[in-house]
Amino acid sequence: MNKIVLGEPLNRVDGRLKVTGGAKYSGEYKQPGLTYGVLVPATITSGTVTAMDTRAAERAPGVVAVITVFNAPAVPGFQKDAVKPVRGLKLFNDNKVYFNGQPIALVIAETFERATYAAKLVTATYAETPFETSFEKNFDKGVVPNNGQYKDYVRGLADAYKNAPVIVEEDYKLPSEMHNPMELHVTIAAWVGDDEVHVYTKSQGVMGSQRSVANAFGLATEKVHIHSRFVGGAFGSSLRTWPHEIAAVQAAKLVKRPVKLTLTREQMFTSVGYRPLTIQKIGLGATLDGKLVGITHESHSQTAVYEEFTENAVAVSRFLYASANANTRYRVVPLNVGVPCPMRGPGEATGAFALESALDELSYKLGMDPIALRLANYAETDPERNLPWSSKYVKECYALGASRIGWDQRLAHPGSLRDGEWLVGYGMGCGAFGAHRSATTVRIRLSADGRVVLWSATSDIGPGTGTAMTVIAANILGLPADKISFELGDSGFPTAPTQGGSQTVSSVGSAVHDVCVALRGRLYELSGLPVDSTTDIDYVRVLKEHGLPELELSGESKPDAEAQKYSSYSFSAHFAKVAVHPLTGQVRVRQLIAVVDAGKVISHKTASSQMIGGAVGGIGMVLTEEAVIDDRFGKYINGNLADYHVPVNADIPDIEAIFIDKPDPYINPIGTKGVGEISLIGVAAAVANAVYNACGKRIRELPITPDKLI
Amino acid sequence: MNPFTYVRATETSGAIRALGRDSHFLAGGTNLIDLMKMGIVTPEKLVDITHLPLKHISRTPTGLSIGALCTNSEVADHPLVLKHYPLLSMAFNAGASPQLRNMATVGGNMMQRTRCPYFFDTALPCNKRVPGSGCGALQGYNRMHAIFGASDQCIAVNPSDMSIALTALEATVHIQGARGGRILPFADFHRLPGDTPEKDNVLEPGELITSLTLPLPAFPDHVHYLKIRDRTSYAFALVSVAAALQLDGGNVRAVRLVMGGVAHKPWRLEAAEDFLRGKPATVENFRQAAYLAMQGAKAYAYNQFKLTLAPNAIVQALKTASGVTA
Amino acid sequence: MADYSDNQSHEEDLEHSTRRSFFKQSTAFGAIALTPAALVRAAEHQWDEKIADVFEKMPLNIEVNGVKHSLKVEPRTTLLDLLREQLDLTGTKKGCDRGQCGACTVHVNGVRINSCLSLAVSNEGKKITTIEGLAVGDNLHPMQDAFIRHDGFQCGYCTSGQIMSAVALVKEGRTHSREQISEFMSGNICRCGAYSNIVKAIEDVKNSGL
User: Fold this and answer.
1) pLDDT over 80 (residue C43)
2) Do C63 and C85 have their domain in common?
3) Whether the Cβ atoms of residue A11 and residue A605 lie closer than 8 Å to each other
4) Among A245, A618, A630, A664, which residue's beta carbon has the most beta carbons within 10 A?
5) A624 closest CB neighbour out of B143, B230, B305
6) Of C81, C117, C178, C180, which to mutate for an interface test with B (greatest number of B Cβ within 10 Å)?
7) What subunits touch chain B, counting only 3 or more CB pairs under 8 A?
8) Both C169 and C114 in a single domain?
9) Distance between CA atoms of A14 and A462, rounded to whole angstroms?
10) Cβ-proximal residues to A482 (8 Å cutoff; 6+ apart), any chain
11) Domain with C78 in it
């Protein structure tokens, strides 16, 4: 029997579909009578729409309908008395404009070309009101978030760093960063009668999408069918149901035909969230031998005037290092912009850039090796929650990373290592992300032909969910991987959490584990063998002998109380070697090593790819990415992939992912802690610190483009 | 895109005749189709010229003739270009992406519009797009903008890499109009914005670029095209420098220096060339040349860095082209 | 509000009937889009007629993955939208629609291009190869196989474009070094960040001499 062991490199189970063009993404399902929806954006940044002229658009050939803020059919979930009101912006519900690019109309036509053209024919008149998009100008208007989860935190004394012998006190700025998944956000909505709808949409959580659509349109949950089998990347941008998705469903209901609504790349800069522009102040105080006396971490980040967005930017400073004194403050600055949403690594990545840069600065002030400084402040237990770690192998991460990158080649004095004309430097940065697990149900069926199918309403935005689940199932059932298939991305499947927060393998994988153990147990029971028997049995024969055409089980798996006694995080240490050209300011990342303690690795190949991909995201964060608003107009002026620079192939060296690969004993039955976020957290600091080591320029305002290094 | 008629031309005079009011020639389409999608250009008619016989790359008694409909990659990869005009290949390969270079033609590259974000957004002011509407960049986010030859009407830059090299190579442009043809130096093809920034170049309505000629010798042994950008590839230049040197022992016998990303047209660095000619090829002289090249430069709020990056890039390009590092 | 299920709902629009009848007429006479625009100049100030004219579809003969198609398309339809929306060849992806990402890469007469910036009608008589045309029956193209083995993708959305580009890259002979591969694959953006695995897949194919 081709028994698979956990961690064995299995090729992606949907690889063939993806390399042949056979994988169908949400916008690619054929629908009879399909129409095309194109949104019309507001051209003001704040105010009201006073009138719209849609006559030319309506007259244009092929136009089926034009929905505007004045004629849009009511969405039940938008109403004041709604039992479960729709969260956030209620598109077309009133004539208010909160940000530039906010959709004010939707044109539906017979073809994409006709809808696109007709959308350009819609004109609006506005009553403009003053707006604010400048973060710096409104910095002082930062407020404690309303949601109550971001109160100021103090352990020991606040701002204790100020009285330490060695101090670092600096501001770090990250610009707004766009998720920019390669797939455009798209939704096809197709109603069946008045009370049932199929929605093919880009979703990280089909159950969440189902609830949102059901609530918005007052439908029974089971009458809303969300289909999202293949998702062309998301990185957080599909964690929630966005206004345009509701609009597509609304439009399809109105025209009584399926509607496909695709955002343009430009519209994705305003409509599907982003990592918010953030300015953080870090204060570090240390003794002369490098013991931290105090950590202070303050963050201001932008949010929308119509909806508050918060994230864990400052949390990392409360637990990553041992310090008797630590305090954090978190503020949000409401502006006339679209609402942000979590972007890979979310706030933790933002916070880690600041904290890990500041620690690097401290290491130079102390004349101490950055790794030694971190070891001197190693947190043996979680100082924030006062709990033991469920597992933590960070010292091993440091050692492996240092060895692999050649840390001993690093010269402490910046600017002293050369390779021809290029200055070479080494840097490292660390990260942590909470290891989570949510209740998940998986159904499994063994058929008479020996094939096993598992179902769960989870997603795969790219990490290879189906592959990891297949590895787990194959491992427990002792079956070859090609006998197993895992179905996901449909709200009709058993309940699973949204794919976010690095919890998919821990949650769904645990459920797959449990249901496979149950199935195996049942088969052994039927065979008259003890469930823990190591004797191989022929499942097909067992079914046959008992006259069973198939065997189907379903089971829920959820966190147990024992895990609550520990503090559980994935940890990472990223090591970068960069070259900086002193004359031209060009930076080349020559090598990047990502060492991660993410518990047990289930699918080595896909997990490695995830780590590498996160590192690429981190390189984008630190070197190339910045969404720019012209505050005179309140509008993004680089809202496209030519001017907003996602890293390209030539920006990326060989990146190596190294896993500690030791199971966490407490968090779940498979010992995993999560990879998705940790892959990005700490990367930006590692590269920025390497840039400093190379050329002596400390860049605290990302991205580090050539102009900042000359 | 707005609706339009499409006609396919099979011979040059017919193409010119077919071009009417609000019409455009369509070649590779990499810029025009994009502009049409953005609503910046809304032609009534496109005249597809890709079937015209303007695709030759051939020797002439004085150099090389390149048909205007050769794609960027056809020229970049051509053995004669690689041998005699490697600077041009380098410039081509620094531009856009392989796929775009396979589509974009030489003539189309010359006609390429600016990448100024205010030009590209019909909701924002731009004198180049809508004369008289104002320059959004002047007081705006002008990080990518000109430091030479700009006007209060327009501070946009020409985005072409190819054109920087062709200026350095002192190419000649061959143009056909309804009333005959004309020839002009490549350096005179693009223009400065002045009070009419809507005009990128001197091409008259109805005229068609038919070919380029490149003279010899083009001192191919010491050339470099240096392009500094915000990511390693597939991005427009912050600044770029085309450098071609003829060295005689340690001395500069001849030199061509042209900068991109700094002006509304390829910016020839004549003062620097004059200074270097006849002088020893030393880094110190390169620095002095770069200093002279920067006289008259004027930066705006967000592109002050170009006052440093540009001379640095000149020095670096000269170093790489000459092999002189001290 | 009008019944939107009926396309012809704006009966109050006086110009409406003109447009409709013109449509019928021009359809009856077949395509006229290739006719010089002068033919319809007389009606130039008549918005609807002008629209109707230019909306008329043009004939297009094109071969996609070895299959010959005789189609009628609007001049403004891009090759990408033709493939995805009319021929149901959705393997070719739309990531930006502006030549800025490479997801739409296909081969036209063997050369890799961005199909989002190519008008379908410009491809008259040409041979298009898309990702769906790469494998021979059940046998994957070596590049497809290498992408699977080296895990050269995650979400899979840029993958078609990456593979089409990579196949062309090998044919172009631009695989002399890792740097060259990287540079000449930079017209294909992968947001999942699979670049280093993509390079390994290409090196593998190149080294195997396929």
Assistant:
1) no
2) yes
3) yes
4) A618
5) B230
6) C117
7) A, C
8) no
9) 11
10) none
11) 58-133
Crossing angle (nearest 10°) for helices C142-149 and C195-207: 130
Question: Model's pTM, two decimal places?
Answer: 0.95
Per the CB < 8 A criterion, the answer to whether B225 and B87 are in contact is: yes
> What residue numbers bound the domain in which A103 lies?
32-44+46-130+180-271
Distance from CA of B81 to the nearest CA of A (A): 25
Q: Which of residues 161-220 of B touch C (CB under 8 A)?
A: none
Residue B112 sits at the chain C interface (C-beta within 8 Å): no
On whether any CB of chain A is under 8 Å from the CB of C163, the answer is yes
Chain segment B163-181, per-residue pLDDT in tens: 999 999 999 999 999 999 9
Q: Once rounded to an integer, what is the mean pLDDT over residues A330-351?
A: 98
Q: Is B233 in Cβ contact with C183 (below 8 Å)?
A: yes
Rounded Cα–Cα distance for residues A17 and C132 (Å):
10
Model pLDDT, residue B301: 98
Domain co-membership, A430 together with A454: no
Q: Tell me, what's the pLDDT at A4?
A: 56
d(CA A365, CA A363): 5
**End of a domain among A510, A532, A558?**
A558
- Between residues A676 and C24, which one has the greater pLDDT? A676
C-beta of residue B298 within 8 angstroms of C-beta of residue B145: no
* Mutation target vs C (from B30, B31, B33; most C CBs, 10 A cutoff): B33
What's the mean per-residue pLDDT of chain A? 97
Of B232, B306, B315, the CB nearest to A583: B315
Alpha-carbon distance values, A705 to A509, A650, A708, B242, C193 (Å): 41, 15, 6, 22, 20
- Among chain B residues, CA nearest to C112: B99
Q: Is the ipTM here above 0.85?
A: yes
Active site residue A677: yes
Distance between A650 CA and the closest CA of chain B, angstroms: 6
* Catalytic site residue from A128, A625, A677, A701: A677
- Sorted by where each starts, the structural domains of chain B and their CATH numbers stand as 5-48 (3.30.43), 222-322 (3.30.390.50)
If phi > 0 it is left, if psi is from -120 to 50 it is alpha, else beta; for residue A296 that is beta
Q: Which amino acid is at A72?
A: A
What does the pLDDT look like over C109-120, one tens digit per residue? 999 999 999 999
DSSP string, A628-681: -EETTTTEES--STTTS----GGG---EEEEE-----SSS-TT-B---TTTTTT
Which strand (E) or helix (H) includes residue B83?
Answer: helix B79-84
Residue C52 included in any domain: no
